[in-house]
Automatic annotation (TrEMBL):
Pfam family, one: 7TM_GPCR_Srab
Protein name stated in the entry: G-protein coupled receptors family 1 profile domain-containing protein
Organism taxonomic ancestry: Eukaryota, Metazoa, Ecdysozoa, Nematoda, Chromadorea
Membrane topology annotation: Multi-pass membrane protein
TM helices/strands, residue ranges: 20-44, 64-85, 106-125, 145-171
Length: 201
């Protein structure tokens, strides 16, 4: 169902907000699955084979269970950037933006967030190493380069988010002051006009 404009929000921000909420719910579900599988195995399931009584994950199963959460966390960071960009455009060009009826920008940004996050999660899954027989869900062992690269990506996303929303805050504050001065000027002109009319009468 395609979102439509209402009295409060433009259809593009509605798409991005719903996408953000969707990724948040999927992230929570992924955490429940990964942590829940660990909890069930640790507290309720026991194995009679091997030295460890806890059933171990085979191959990359432990990493695979972590990837949905990794995907959603990355998607949330990217979505936050896109929400900030959309709000910045809506603030700088309010009249022109409100007249735009196309929802293509919202769907495009949502698709970019999905593909970028999926690509990063797939890249991490293909490059991580793990020993067979993991007792708990893990992200795996990463090479130093990959570790610093993923950390740098996440820090860059957070820095861009801080920058965008800081600029948006000051832009909104400046606009509110301008509107306040305009309202004061109009109120003053109205009072002067009213006094002149009263004097003539």
């Amino acid at each position: 169902m395609t979102p439509t404009k209402n009295c409060k929000y433009h259809s593009n921000i509605v798409i991005l907000q719903r996408g953000y909420v969707g990724f948040t719910l999927l992230s929570a579900l992924g955490t429940v699955v990964s942590d829940g599988s660990d909890a069930i195995r640790l507290f309720f399931v026991r194995s009679s084979t091997g030295d460890c009584p806890i059933p171990l994950y085979s191959g990359k199963t432990a990493v695979m269970l972590m990837m949905p959460t990794v995907f959603c966390v990355n998607a949330l960071g990217v979505m936050f950037i896109f929400i900030g960009i959309e709000r910045a455009i809506a603030t700088v060009y309010p009249e022109r933006y409100e007249k735009m009826k196309s929802t293509l920008p919202g769907w495009f940004l949502l698709g970019v967030a999905f593909l970028a996050s999926f690509g990063k999660a797939a890249w991490m899954f293909s490059r991580t190493k793990t020993r067979d027989g993991q007792p708990m869900v893990t992200i795996g062992e990463m090479e130093p380069f990959m570790h610093f690269a993923t950390l740098g990506m996440q820090l860059a996303i957070e820095f861009v988010n801080i920058l965008i929303f800081t600029l948006l805050h000051f832009c909104n504050k400046r606009r509110q002051k301008a509107l306040g001065r305009l309202s004061s000027t109009l109120a003053y002109k109205y009072q002067v006009t009213t006094l002149k009319v009263l004097k003539k009468s």
